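Changelog-adjacent note: as of this version, every example in the card shows the full chain rather than a window. The one below runs 74 residues end to end.
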Amino acid sequence: MKLEDIIYAHSSSVKEFLDGGELEWDLYTDLYDYYTSKNQLSYAAHKAIDVDPIQEVSTLFAEDCRSYGVSYCE
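Full-length structure tokens:
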């Protein structure tokens, strides 16, 4: 699944996240799978060793949203 597909599939959750909310669980699991498939999660986050995987996925997603110019979804 491409990042754009994930954003489209979870548009209301993405908007909530970009408005300062937490990642909704279904959005998180899709993003976790996406970042794992791209080898972007650290080993520590992947194994939850001293790194919160939710926090790392949130950080990666926020960076990607800024890079792609995603500020809201309709």
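Structural remarks: The CA atoms of residues 1 and 37 lie 10 Å apart.
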